[in-house]
Write the structure tokens for this entry.
Amino acid sequence: MKPALSALTVLSILLAAPALAAEPQIDVPLMKRVVERLSADDLEGRAPSTAVEPKVLDTIIAAFKAAGLQPGKDGWLQDVPTVEVTGSHHSPLAITGGTAPLSFAVGKDYVANSYRLLPRTDIQGAELVFVGYGINAPELGWNDYAGIDMHGKIAVILVNDPDYQTEGEQGLFKGRRMTWYGRWPYKYEEAARQGAKGALIVHETFPAAYGWNVLQSSGTSPQYFVQSPNDGMDQTEVNGWIQLPVAQKIFAAAGKDFAGLSAAARQKGFKAVPLGLKASLSFDNAVRRSVSHNVVGVLPGTTRPDEYVLYSAHWDHLGHCTPDASGDDICNGAVDNATGVAALTAIAKASAAAGRAPRSQVFLAVTLEESGLLGSEFYARHPVYPLAKTVGGVNMDALDPGGRARDYSLTGGDKSDLTALFRAALADMGLKETPEDHAERGSYYRSDHFSFAKRGVPMFDLSRGTDLFVGGKAAGDAAHEDYVKNRYHGPNDEYSPDWDWSGITEDVTLFYRLGHDLAISSAWPNWHPDDEFRRVRDASRATVTK
């Protein structure tokens, strides 16, 4: 089914498109200047909503103007109102109604926060219900909430999705590859849609793809959200995680077999199980409101200007961070993600030089990616250009300096008709496709393209492989390990005039090619019929007047 559909899509694009433009001229000196400026020490690591943000925005706007872009429909800047919520004075998580009362300590045994902007969260005697993986997927005939009213209750949920233990990608939920249904934000969102008072996810290291130490740190730190008109009152009152041994003790107190119910939850037709227990917990919330900004530029289309192709990259980074041995505490973010903004600018310049395409091309430098994709989330909630008329797009995040590679991988795997464009472009460029590393980690759902994908817009997220033309896989793997170990999210992620730009240049050429193919065509790519985002894309496109 999928190969035939993809081949048809490629054919339709080729038939609908004029002849391809000449190979783009990617302006490497321009990219060098953008990266060097955005990662300079005086921009202090580009932390959003700080005194340096205006200088960062001025730099990006100037680069966009010089590249030939026009301001977006509402101007260069889109306000992004956000909130920071810091929980404190957490009570123990108290469980009653079982063989014996249980009490669990915050940090050590559980973590919990609230999306609601209230000064205090106080849950007393909420019923616990085991809802398996907490998934409602009509396209797969799967609903863990079928037949149960969750109002006033707390959902206890397994992490990942039902077939994560399967080798390969066989199964309703794509086997080892994590789907959106396996990610914790989905589980919180679905629990809220079901009317639940709260959601507690059971942590296990392998299916979560990280240890409890990560949650112990992030779950007790300030939480960042996009401001909503109702201050999050449509969300659950409490969201959190519990350690696996905690879950086992809770189930035992309820006279239930955790292992047996977990196995049952992997089967289609599983029914939620009330545990006959009640949970109580409370904590204070300190709320701080702030505003950051997305930068929006556009190349208007010629014959179909109300159809849009989107290019995105985040401009923010961590600001000041843990000092290194020399005392340097500026996380400059040269690779992550000054390179992405430089790529945006270079593609904009190449696109302007090639002449305007039939469709409009939108260039979006978003804020607050490092705080949870908040800039792209805000744009997706409040799009300057309608998502129903956004054809698809390309996201660019952390382009590694280094040599050209023979291979590229499609993050998220074969999810949509965009796969065919990707494979055609690789073939044309003499490159090959390799599988995504660690598909079980759900990387597709962790960068800015996802804010658009979950609302139906097919988005590319690509990774350059490690099979380098010079040095092969050994050299590529060593370079990647060096970046992760020594520079990622640290003060050493700095610009160097000695960078090898050949790999980035090939990345940007590929990104240009994919966006350009969409911009000159009349096709509307969609998700595959069994994909979790197909329903929302179909519903979105149905709102467009033909």
Q: What stands out?
A: The first strand starts at residue 70 and ends at 71. The two ends are 27 Å apart (CA to CA). Residues 1-11, 13-21 have pLDDT under 50 and may be disordered.
